[in-house]
Amino acid sequence: MLKLKKMNRIMLKVFALFLLTSSIGQAQEFNLNNQESSLKVLGTSNVHDWELEAENLRGKISFKNLNECIIEACNIEVTVEGLKSGKSSMDKNTFKALKSEKHKTISFKLVEVKTVENKDAGKFSVQSVGDLTIAGVKKRVDLNFILNHTEGKVNLTGEKKIKMTDFNVDPPKAMFGAITTGDEVLIKFSTQLK
Predict the structure, then answer these.
(1) Deepest of 62, 65, 89, 112, by most Cβ within 10 A of its Cβ?
(2) Domain Lipid/polyisoprenoid-binding YceI-like spans what residues (predicted)?
(3) Residue 77 sits in a domain of what CATH number?
């Protein structure tokens, strides 16, 4: 009887170890690599088109199962004063419009993955919904992106059009209102996570 109890305990430990290692093998987390990632904001004005590039990105993505692209969580942050155009006066107007003194970051937090389509060999088309927060205003938005995974790396690429006024951001102006920017901007991203 004692041997049977001991054998049952050993079997239980082996089974628990098996469950633990199989879940570790499938659940994975990746952190954003700022040097290998890019995010651009493209807009228009009554004079010329303009572009901002993010110098400082942070974030992570975690999977319940990477091979099946079952995403558990995804969060991305952009430092507002790291958005640069190459023109300091435009950057100052951008920071002011985005209320950077009070709201230091722009963030996206995944809420739900609606669909995942397996394209081939680690490439998936993902339709998702998340909370986008700009200048302290949070809005739920649809976001479609392509997810590629290779050994030890995940890459997310996509784009999203938004209106600044939806986030209570007045499109920046310059030269006493002589230069005005359009309300709609296009955000393009290619983020590398390791």
Answers:
(1) 62
(2) 29-194
(3) 2.40.128.110
3 within a domain of the structure (yes/no): no
Through-space distance between the first and last CA atoms of the chain, rounded to whole angstroms: 51
Is the residue at 123 inside a domain?
yes
Residue 108 near residue 165, CB atoms below 8 Å: no
pLDDT per position as a tens digit, 39-68 = 999 999 877 899 999 999 999 999 999 999
Q: Is residue 21 part of a domain?
A: no
Single out the residue of 94, 101, 114, 108 nearest to residue 171, CA to CA: 94
Question: Do the domain assignments include residue 59?
Answer: yes
- CA-based angle 62:159:29, to the nearest 5? 10
What's the domain count of the chain? 1
- Residue from 175, 122, 172, 125 nearest 145 by CA: 125
**pLDDT one-digit tens code per residue, 83-102:** 999 999 889 999 999 999 99
